[in-house]
Amino acid sequence: MGHTSSFRTWAILGVGIAVVVGLGLLLMFLGREPGKPNPVTSPTLPASSEVPIVASVDGRPIQHADWMEAVLLDHVMSGLSGKPAPSPEETLQRLINEDLILNSFPPEKEPTAGQIEARIAALEQAWGVDDTAVVTALEKAQLTRAAFERAVGRLLTVEAGLEALESQGHDATDWLEEQRAGVEIVVNDELEAVPVPHIPIAPSPPARPEKSPVSTPAAETTGLSPVPTPASETAGLSSIPTPAPETPSPTPAPVTPEIAPDFTLERVGGDTLTISEQLTQGPVVLVFFHRHG
Amino acid sequence: MELQTQYDAFQEAGAEVIAVAVTSIEVANGWCHGTGVTYPVLADPDHRVSEAYGVYNLLGDGYAAPAVFVIEPDGQVAWSYVGRDRSDQAGLQSVLEHLP
Fold first, then answer.
1. Which residue range forms the structural domain that includes residue B25?
2. CB proximity B7 to A under 8 Å
3. What are the tens digits of pLDDT across the range A110-127?
4. Domain count of chain B?
5. Cβ of B27 and A113 within 8 Å?
6. Staple partner for A94: which of A30, A61, A99, A135, CB 3.0–4.6 Å?
């Protein structure tokens, strides 16, 4: 499922497509409560002695923890994309809509890690941030990249469900309205009162080191931090309970080779690359990505 | 990927950029799909190469630390920079200055 087909879906649905690549738009769309009042009935949530449930859709529970994570993710994603964050209630309505879609159009197969990473890369490109900035923003909200990956995986399955829905001739908005009128949706108002922490998130420029690098002796006198980042620059993002910065436990001093070890590895797009062969054509800048650049 | 925006500068300086990531080729393909990356991206799924260059698991997370090696045509490492955390990356100008 490519972005083109997603765009087509939105265009047909009459949803503005000024926004790029999926998530923000989909979240916005799914967060809308279709025209009529939400058929919330008196709280008769499924009995659950241990896991707090914030809502149920025909008896299918939406866990409070999942809702809270979705709220935080929405906040982070909105911050990165420069759009206003949905309210917690809107996020809950989106989760209910997603449940309805996935229940009727379950995924034929789960998205692969490659598909998820491809969509994350596309989102990052659309937002104009790199992966480090995303991870930093997630960490400010005490979220992990794994949570983001799960959310993007869910996005892909919901998109697939929407496509399936549309392929059967339905209009997504009308279909959701019909579904919501016909199922029992229960919201636990007590849990709605749980405060959502205010998390200021702003797109961050790609991080630059301010610390001295670990380098070979030849590099020691050069300015290796062309764009030093004042410590105060990120202070505005730290006004929330944030775990201690991720400082890996004692980092061993790297022992890097003086002569580049030769290697052959598989390359993206097919074929292999041998560095000794590449060096016959000139110098090489060999970059190791932590996760991806 | 930020590196892509710097790729032209490296090429103008006569150097090829090669990126290596500790991941499977499938995931690496996924990363690059649709992003317009034109430099070679290599998968190092068994982290053999990252270990050989001394950057594997330096951050204790099972990945390579972000690092840059400027390698001369005779195989000498002219300069290297190993990040101390995952956002600690060499600046473009620093790398360019160390190209032979």
1. 2-97
2. no
3. 888 888 998 998 888 888
4. 1
5. yes
6. A30
* Consecutive H or E run containing A285: strand A284-289
Closest-CA residue to A164 (of A175, A153, A177, A178): A175
How many residues comprise chain A?
A: 293
- Token pair of A166, please? 């549309």
User: Which of A79, A77, A75, A96 shows the shortest CA–CA distance to A196?
Assistant: A75
CATH architecture of A3-192: Orthogonal Bundle (1.10)
Contact B18 A255 (CB under 8 A): no
pLDDT tens-digit profile of A156-198? 999 888 888 888 888 888 899 888 888 888 887 666 534 444 4
Spatial neighbors of B4 by CB under 8 A, at least 6 apart, are A293, B35, B36, B37, B38, B39
Q: What is the ipTM of this complex?
A: 0.96
Angle at A278 between CA A274 and CA A282, to 5 degrees: 160
CB B29 within 8 A of CB A292: no
Q: Which chain A positions have a beta carbon within 8 Å of B40's beta carbon?
A: 267-268, 273
pLDDT in tens, chain B (100 residues): 478 888 888 999 899 999 999 988 988 888 888 788 899 999 999 999 999 999 998 888 888 999 999 999 999 999 999 988 877 888 878 888 888 8
Angle between helices A88-104 and A64-81 (to 10 degrees): 110
Alpha helices, DSSP H, located in A168-198: 172-182, 189-192
Contact A222, B40 (CB under 8 A): no
Angle between helices A88-104 and A23-31 (to 10 degrees): 90
More confident residue, A138 or A198: A138
CATH code for the domain of B88: 3.40.30.10
Cβ–Cβ below 8 Å for B31 and A117: yes
- Please enumerate in sequence order all residues whose Cβ is within 8 A of that of A283, keeping only pairs 6 or more positions apart, or say none: B14, B15, B16, B70, B71, B72, B73, B78, B99, B100
